[in-house]
Specification:
It comes from Panagrolaimus sp. JU765. The protein is mainly alpha-helical and 402 residues long. It contains 17 helices and 4 strands. Helix 6 packs parallel to helix 10.
Length: 402
């Protein structure tokens, strides 16, 4: 999603960093001379991202120098078709609306996330306030804002029984609207464009399952947020932390993270480093007797301090249900990586307006209704009523100045 706010943010930051050049080659040359710590200190002086569907300052950009000034459409048209696998969860935007204790994922919800306990007090008034200030400001919706919101409310708030009986209904409906704006509808347009350019092998999987035991314990709702499936692929939990780190473990983690970060940003792992080998030779004394057996540090032991993925122990036993979900995920990922096809009987996308997908839970179920129920509505809102789902360069979205 192109956002001119990002461009103004970058221009302001460049000037603060002493790199005001407008020629891209000269600007890149200047920026490469800067220390990462200095860049971080300067960027921290600038404000948080404004309240809008364009959520972050830092997003991938198209390097016009590298691609000789060609547009994304031109590059897509010139690129040889290849197999594409898209993955999406049932409630992607919950990563922005749910304020939870995991400090990594919770960072995305700093601006307008609410806690599990607040979900049941999220009212129709709150819903309207969020929509007015976040998704349907005049800069995006123009003069048709009221009509757009009426259409959306009739579509997403149509379950009268749930309105009366489910105190979290308005919060869940808010997630549905945002997930369509920020994830599902852009996915639809990308698939449609690739079909126009004769990309024949496109597959979609919908991961729409959360562990029933985790709904009450910390998720609050039976909606599957962005990144929830990661735990079944890497054992890294994005929405909960199974264990508290001990002070000793935190000290080891700090040592690891600091030199990795320094090396990635500067090419130098730290002061007084020989060039450049590191030996990790430590195991938690408490784990020698419990499962390692010897005070020797095996390959991959340090991974837990970088990714929260334990290579030599699992803090929790996987339940049979979780193992079944994991098996479904791993098998089709492996098949797609090896063969370009995610598996037998997988639907292939042939029509963007009737988007076929495989639904991944503890079962594997092909379907074609999850996305299509809202695509027609959003085509009307975007293409007929003029909603700016994507902003072009130069569109003014924010009046505030730094």
């Amino acid at each position: 999603m192109v956002n001119p706010y990002q461009q103004r943010f970058q221009k302001t930051l460049n000037e603060m960093l002493g790199c005001p050049q407008t020629d891209s080659a000269e600007l890149k040359k200047c920026l490469k001379t800067l220390n990462a710590t200095f860049v971080s200190e300067m960027s921290n002086k600038l404000p948080q991202v404004p309240f809008d569907v364009a959520r972050v300052h830092w997003t991938p950009v198209l390097d016009k120098d590298f691609y000789a000034g060609k547009t994304v459409d031109e590059l897509t048209r010139e690129t040889p078709p290849k197999a594409v696998l898209y993955g999406i969860t049932g409630s992607e935007s919950m990563i922005f609306t749910f304020a939870h204790p995991n400090f990594v994922t919770g960072a995305f919800a700093l601006e307008y996330g609410i806690t599990k306990d607040e979900m049941s007090t999220f009212t129709l008034k709150n819903y309207h306030e969020k929509m007015d200030g976040y998704a349907f400001k005049p800069e995006r919706a123009g003069c048709n804002s009221k009509l757009m919101q009426d259409l959306i409310e009739k579509f997403y708030l149509s379950n009268l029984t749930a309105i009366r009986t489910d105190p979290k209904y308005y919060y869940k409906s808010w997630n549905d609207v945002l997930s369509d704006i920020e994830f599902n509808v852009p996915l639809y347009y990308e698939i449609e464009k690739k079909l126009q350019y004769n990309w024949p092998d496109q597959y979609v999987f919908l991961f729409d399952w959360v562990d029933p035991a985790e709904v009450d314990s910390y998720l609050g709702v039976n909606q599957c947020p962005h990144g929830y499936e990661i735990q079944f692929l890497t054992d890294m939990r994005a929405y909960s932390l199974d264990k508290p780190w001990t002070p000793l473990q935190l000290k080891v983690q700090k040592n690891l993270v600091e030199f990795y970060t320094s090396f990635i940003k500067t090419g130098v792992p730290g002061k007084n480093w020989p060039k450049y080998v590191f030996l990790f030779d430590w195991v938690d004394p408490a784990e020698v007797d419990s499962y390692l057996g010897v005070n020797q540090c095996p390959h991959g032991y340090e991974i837990q301090f970088l990714t929260d993925m334990r290579a030599y122990s699992l803090d929790k036993p996987w339940t049979p249900l979780q193992l079944k979900v994991q098996k479904n995920l791993v098998e089709f990922y492996t098949s797609f990586i090896k063969t370009g096809v995610p598996g037998q009987n997988w639907p292939k996308v042939t029509d963007a307006e009737r988007l076929a997908y495989m639904k991944i839970t503890d079962k594997m179920e092909p379907g074609n209704t999850f996305f299509n129920r809202s695509f027609l509505l959003w085509r009307t809102i975007v293409e007929l009523l003029g909603y700016k789902l994507t902003l072009a360069d130069g569109d003014q979205l924010y009046d505030d100045e730094f």
